[in-house]
Design a protein that fits this description.
The chain is mostly helical and 203 residues long. It has one domain. The protein has helices at residues 2-70, 75-87, 89-100, 109-148, 158-200.
């Protein structure tokens, strides 16, 4: 009888060990799934910012210089817009700096949530910063062009209207794309926050 009880206890111990190991494996799988989903959303946020950086650099180095060379825009007006675009890169560089500190494997979820909060704060400041900067730059630009540009007789020429029309079309398409990307960006940030909150339970 004692032999049967010992064998039964041993069997239960083996079964308990297997269940424990299975539970640990399942928890690891669940954690990895959450981490992968969070990592995917984070990669999307990174792509969003790198895309913005590439577009801004192209505008600064290629698009607006092309417009300047093919239209009677004053050098002062050109410098004002170029300077505004360069200064506009500051919040973007701040965001990329924060994203470079995001290490899902090496940092705790609480610390990463702090980084996300700081990132969202920079995003909010960026919107105010860019609106104010664009408003000031455009006012200075138009005052410079309308009051001091002595080549205004070119204003209605094909040489001006073609690049101007292409520029306005580019800005319109860029604005629509930016709205779509902004919504997607917000959803990705929400996914990151949810993932980090869930990963807290595994720490």
């Amino acid at each position: 009888m004692e032999m049967e009880l010992d064998e039964l206890k041993a069997g239960w111990d083996v079964l308990n060990n297997r269940l424990s190991q299975s539970e640990i494996v399942n928890l690891r799988i669940v954690r990895e799934m959450i981490a992968q989903k969070t990592r995917t959303a984070f990669d999307g946020v990174c792509r969003h910012n790198y895309y913005n950086l590439i577009v801004c650099v192209l505008m600064i180095c290629a698009v607006f210089p092309y417009i300047y060379l093919n239209t009677p825009i004053r050098a002062f007006s050109f410098v004002v817009v170029e300077a505004a675009m360069v200064i506009g890169l500051v919040p973007l560089i701040q965001k990329l700096s924060l994203l470079s500190q995001f290490d899902l494997n090496g940092k705790r979820s609480k610390e990463l949530l702090g980084l996300v909060l700081r990132y969202k704060k920079v995003c909010h400041q960026e919107a105010i910063w860019v609106i104010a900067e664009v408003a000031v730059a455009m006012i200075v630009f138009y005052v410079s062009e309308l009051m001091f540009n002595d080549q205004v007789h070119y204003a209605f020429g094909i040489k001006v209207l073609l690049p101007l029309g292409l520029t306005l079309l580019t800005f319109a398409l860029g604005y629509l794309l930016a709205l779509w990307m902004r919504r997607r960006h917000a959803l990705q940030l929400k996914e990151i926050e949810q993932g980090l909150e869930e990963l807290k339970e595994f720490e």
